[in-house]
């Protein structure tokens, strides 16, 4: 669940297509993991209603070929 207003920032001027595809694949895997964890948490809470707000901000360092990830989760718990 990515923030719609956020755009990936590519460091460096000559970024190859392969690096971009690897970067996008990493985002898809991370998004899947967060969705999977959220699906495990929801049933356990039972009578609680939880609003989750996931934000994943990722940058790609082309010199090291490492995706750096800054993840944060905010949630509000409301009794039914």
Structure report:
- The chain has one helix at 17-45; strands at 9-10, 48-61, 66-79.
- Residues 10-14 have low confidence and may be disordered.
- Helix 1 links the parallel strand 1 (9-10) and strand 2.
- It has one domain.
- With 80 residues, the chain is α+β, with helices and mostly antiparallel strands.
- Strands 1-2-3 form a three-stranded mixed sheet, with helices on one face.
- Helices cover 36% and strands 38% of the residues.
- The chain crosses the membrane at residues 21-40.
- Keywords: Membrane, Transmembrane, Transmembrane helix.
Helix count from the secondary structure assignment: 1
Could you name the ranges where pLDDT drops below 50 across 5 or more consecutive residues?
10-14
Q: How many individual domains?
A: 1
What's the main sheet like? Answer: 3 strands, mixed
Average pLDDT, rounded to a whole number, is 53
Overall body shape: elongated
Strand order of the largest sheet: 1-2-3
What is the first-to-last residue Cα distance? Answer: 25 Å
């Amino acid at each position: 669940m990515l923030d719609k207003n956020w755009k990936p920032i590519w460091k460096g001027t000559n970024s190859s297509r392969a690096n971009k595809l690897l970067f996008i694949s990493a985002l898809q895997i991370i998004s899947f993991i967060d969705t999977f964890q959220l699906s495990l948490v929801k049933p356990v809470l039972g009578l609680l209603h939880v609003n989750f707000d996931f934000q994943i901000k990722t940058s790609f360092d082309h010199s090291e070929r490492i995706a750096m990830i800054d993840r944060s989760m905010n949630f509000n718990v409301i009794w039914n």
